[in-house]
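Each field is set out underneath.
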Amino acid sequence: MEALTQAFSGVETAILVDYKGLNVPQVTELRRQLRAVKAQYKVVKNTLAKRALSGTTFEPLSQHFQGTTAVAYTASDPVALAKTLTTFAKTTPAVAIKAAVVQGRAIKAGEVVELANLPGRAELYAKLLFLLQAPMVQLVSVLSAVPRDFLTVLTEVEKKKSEGGS
């Protein structure tokens, strides 16, 4: 129980999974995919998990600890965790998402799928960077237009003078 309590300290997202019917290679593959997104996966005993979660932000999950239950959790990116689990669940029908707590808020299994459809942290950073960079690019374009246009006018005047003088 202490190991489970310690595992959940510092974690902001946990998703409960029903894993009935998974074989060892499938569980190994799921753990490998979760490690890639800095998440962990633990098979837990329901009674111990209920005791470990008592008094924490994950307490709303207590009612879902029935049957075969595993917990996938992360302290970093909840969207990446949700994407990994939903993608794995699509390819492996034995996996079913029960419920989750994301950043202190309890959500249902269907909402985990919605969370998985959101853009990831890296994609959001890229969009933000693009939005911050766009005004600067436009400003540089406007500022460089005046000398460029002036140079074009001078070139045209030079051409007319050389054509008229010949």
